[in-house]
Amino acid sequence: MQDIVNIFIRAIFIDNMIFALFLGMCSYLAVSKTVKTSLGLGIAVVFVQVITVPVNYLLLKYVMKPGALEWLGESFKDVDLSFLSFMVFIATIAAMTQLVEMLIEKFTPALYNSLGIFLPLIAVNCAILGGSLFMEQREYKNIGEVLSWGLGSGIGWALAIVSLAAIREKLKYNKIPAPLRGIGITFIVTGLMGLAFMSFMGIKI
Amino acid sequence: MSIFSSKNFKLLSSPLNLQNPITVQILGICSALAVTVKLKPAIVMGLSVMVVTAISNLVISAMRNYIPPRIRIIVQLVVVATMVILVDQLLRAFVYDVSKQLSVYVGLIITNCIIMGRLEAFAMGNKPWPSFVDGIGNGLGYAMILIVIGFIRELFGSGAVLGYNVVPKSFYDFGYINNGMMIMPTMALILVGVIIWIQRSFNKELIEKD
After folding, report:
1. What is the pLDDT of residues A160-182, one digit of tens each?
2. In terms of Cα–Cα distance, which of B18, B109, B124 is closest to B68?
3. What gap in Å lies between CA A14 and CA A17, rounded to an integer?
4. Which residue of B has its CA nearest to A127?
């Protein structure tokens, strides 16, 4: 139980998707204009992350790992499909994204319109694929740990985008040099936030 | 339509400046931060992305009328993933050391938003040849920014260009030290911000309205 809580906290603050791993920057920078939209995208990312990471874990454990197909019978004992992991992860993610896109289009058309091209781009959000790849690389032991990593990393990403959106809403009232206005100052603000988050890196839980 | 009509030439040249994928369209940032500590991986990464963008644009554009809209993302990803696996194998065969330095980031080209962004925004609605040119142009624009950032970070972060030391030893004797901040990924973000600042000072039409 303690491991699960540890992984959850680490995923949000210490291994933060944006500030520590630098994954999923494109939609992070482009959609963070208002808190409302970014909260919507943040929730969508948490949702996709919570579904794809455990699904990919199960696929990895019962289909792709060396010897994972033993449950099919003796003759499948030596099958190693791990070279397929990249392709399978991406296929799972794309299918889930399409599902979320249809759900959002049906239930909240306003959010669907404001997210625009960035909703299909969740499929190529590096944070999502990165979440599954880190899950594979860190060899989490059971489904509980995997679920807490997926949930924590999604929440960490959502936290980052919502806080950036809040800063950008305040920035509107400031006098910024005209060429730096908009996306330019956003890059610099993110850089400074990243420096601040680096202070979490040394913490051991 | 001739192969290099003025319209096609515009597709090639506009991503270099007014439609630059990184500084104007804000696509493909993650890899720009991660592979630009040194100049050489930045160049190889830029070229790989250019090849993948151009060819997957061409393939998707040729198939665009046969892809059902509901499953287009999966079809696009399969094409892109195939291209990336090919590029990865080629890099391993011919420039193995750089391929090791780039490590997972070659694989993460699949999730580079420039490629998906161009497929969605351009290749799904245009003929194959303009799509190919658009892919080359956007890849060039991406590579250009990567090379500038890689050059600055390597020069100030490790005092070298392409692995050769260019800062004279007398400078170090005099008390000059390499800027360790440049090695960190956060500095790449701030550098991109500064590049945007400079670019928009020269191109007033890019300045965002309130």
Report:
1. 999 999 998 888 888 888 788 87
2. B124
3. 9
4. B111
Q: Note which residues in 191-210 of chain B have CB less than 8 A from chain A.
A: 192-194, 196-201, 206-208, 210
Q: What is the ipTM of this complex?
A: 0.77
Asked whether residue A102 carries a pLDDT value surpassing 60, the answer given is: yes
User: pLDDT above 90 covers what percent of chain A?
Assistant: 9
Q: Where do the structural domains in chain B lie, given as residue ranges? A: 24-200
Using a CB-CB distance cutoff of 8 angstroms, which residues of chain B are in contact with residue A22? 30, 33-34, 185
* CB-based contact A172 B74, cutoff 8 Å: no
Distance (Å) from the C-alpha of residue A188 to the closest C-alpha of chain B? 5
Measured at the CA of B127, the angle between CA B80 and CA B72, to 5 degrees, comes to 40
d(CA A132, CA B120) in angstroms, rounded, equals 24
Query: Do residues B208 and A181 make contact, with C-beta atoms less than 8 angstroms apart?
Result: yes
Distance CA B158, CA B164 (A): 10
